[in-house]
Design goal:
The chain has about 100 residues and is mainly α. The protein has helices spanning about 5-10, 15-25, 30-40, 45-50, 60-70, 70-90, 90-95. Helix 2 (about 15-25) packs across helix 4 (about 45-50), helix 3 crosses helix 4 and helix 5 packs across helix 6.
């Protein structure tokens, strides 16, 4: 889902990168570049993450856990929820067409 879709729909799923930027990077007075340096990753990787262009990986979640003191599971849960909500929107028609198996 693009940022423009999320901006148009206030109930659209929020990418974990947006939460990272708004709730962690900015409040700690960091930039994506400074955050990348502290995480020991390439700057483009964190820039893509905060723009919602790449997911939180296990590797990134572990690094964020160490830097911000928030569990890796928190970051992975945000990503999983985002993926699920995005898929529900994208696949809604296909899922609706599936006929469930009746209980015996």
């Amino acid at each position: 889902m693009s940022a423009s879709v999320a901006a148009a729909d206030p109930l659209a799923p929020v990418h974990p990168g947006e939460i990272l930027l708004e709730e962690f990077i900015r409040p700690f007075g960091l930039s994506p570049g400074k955050t990348a340096k502290r995480l020991r990753i390439a700057r483009p990787r964190i820039e893509k993450l905060v723009r919602g262009q790449t997911p939180v990986t296990v590797d990134t979640a572990l690094r964020l856990e160490k830097l911000f003191g928030v569990t890796a599971q928190f970051w992975l849960n945000l990503q999983t929820r985002y993926d699920l909500e995005t898929a529900k929107l994208t696949l809604a028609d296909d899922i609706a067409a599936i006929e469930p198996i009746a209980a015996a």
